[in-house]
Design goal:
Blueprint (H helix, E strand, L loop, with lengths): L8 E7 L4 H17 L4 E7 L4 H6 L7 E6 L4 E4 L5 H8 L6
Parallel strand pairs: 1-2
Antiparallel strand pairs: 1-3, 3-4
Length: 97
């Protein structure tokens, strides 16, 4: 059985090229993931304008939106990912005490 700290995370971030908030989300999220998940994640970054079908299927209504596809259950986090504690809690990533 896989223990919680060893679970691989599959993440999808929806952004738009024209948004400074999307650019901040990418930078903030990569920094958080590199520190807290190291090599235990896969991050897919999709531009909603180029991936309309994916965005529709994933029911994306605003950007930036981060989906945690695995481990289940699916989780959504909306915003520029600047609130590290909120993002980590939303992803269910254990934080060091």
């Amino acid at each position: 059985m896989t223990t919680a700290p060893d679970r691989p995370y599959l993440l999808r971030l929806y952004v738009t090229d024209a948004s400074p908030k999307s650019a901040r989300a990418i930078v903030n999220l990569r920094r958080l993931l590199d520190v807290h998940l190291a090599d235990r994640y896969t991050l897919e970054i999709l531009n909603v304008a180029s991936h309309v079908a994916n965005a529709t299927e994933d029911q994306i209504v605003c950007v930036p939106t981060l989906l945690r596809l695995a481990p289940l259950p699916l989780r959504r986090i909306i915003g520029d990912m600047s609130d590290a504690a909120r993002v980590l809690k939303g992803l269910d990533v254990p934080q060091a005490s």
